[in-house]
């Protein structure tokens, strides 16, 4: 008789298996994020419905929770992270907060490399989860500094800007795109005409762009890009060597073209001025009865621009975007009128333009 196959223990240590199990168990404890319809009668009467997927309800309070989970699983399964590895990330805030959470879950040291101008609220959150902050003077210095810190500690640089687009399974596996379409199934227009996202790494637009093509949906992807970001110019020209000053809207826009931003997966770029982002953030906060962050305001500007154009052409359909994080993280900055006047300028004209659209 043929001999039975020998069952051997995998060469990977029990720590790796336990680490993956802890991340998966943490995921199972969390419900999916909510889909919020926006009460905008002027557009609804024309057959155009707008929605926000509320990513602020993740345990670490932002869209970046999904990215951090994917990056940890990717690094673990690639054999890049072992028991005791120091995790290093270049981040202006939200990704670092979420990675600090997962590092603590696995009992690993975490260092966030960030500009000194990062908000005190995000620094406090990183430190709350046991992370350490390493400061540089400008956003352009974070890459080299993160490599250096990883080398000094013998750790692993997560590098969200390179790996964001490949760490998530874009075919499904409950990624953000699959969740969006599942939640939209019983709405008036279940397949969105547009999905609007911002781009920091480009990972979210890449995941959604691939998913809609794979599922053969008649949905287009629009990236709402803040002033100062390089992505809009890169999308137009394809020149990956372009640089820009960088965005003043925290969490989105970059001074250089990041490897995870895949321009061929983006159907349209909507470039948004800072005062319009702030005006939209304020209007949306009033509409929802809760504060939202500035990048959500940037998304809302692009949603309204698309809705206006659809209405002018007599088109009907749905537009879906993300509520990226809560506004409480930005009380001393983007939600402080004096800070906005000093750092962003006068938003009065932008607020008037916006209110005219919402009537």
TrEMBL record:
Its EC number is 4.4.1.1. It is found in: Cytoplasm. The modification N6-(pyridoxal phosphate)lysine is found at residue 64. It comes from the Bacteria. One of its GO terms (cellular component) is cytoplasm. Gene3D superfamilies: 3.40.50.1100. GO terms for biological process: L-cysteine catabolic process to pyruvate. Coiled coil: none annotated. It catalyses: L-cysteine + H2O = hydrogen sulfide + pyruvate + NH4(+) + H(+). It holds the Pfam family PALP. Residues 38-325 form the Tryptophan synthase beta chain-like PALP domain. One of its GO terms (molecular function) is lyase activity. The keyword Lyase applies. Its cofactor is pyridoxal 5'-phosphate. A cysteine desulfhydrase that generates hydrogen sulfide, H(2)S. The H(2)S produced by this enzyme stimulates respiration in M.tuberculosis, mediated primarily via cytochrome bd with a lesser contribution from cytochrome bc1/aa3. H(2)S modulates the balance between respiration and glycolysis, and also contributes to redox homeostasis. Probably eliminates toxic levels of Cys (which can induce oxidative stress). Belongs to the cysteine synthase/cystathionine beta-synthase family. Cds1 subfamily. HAMAP family: Cds1. This is L-cysteine desulfhydrase Cds1. It comes from Alicycliphilus denitrificans.
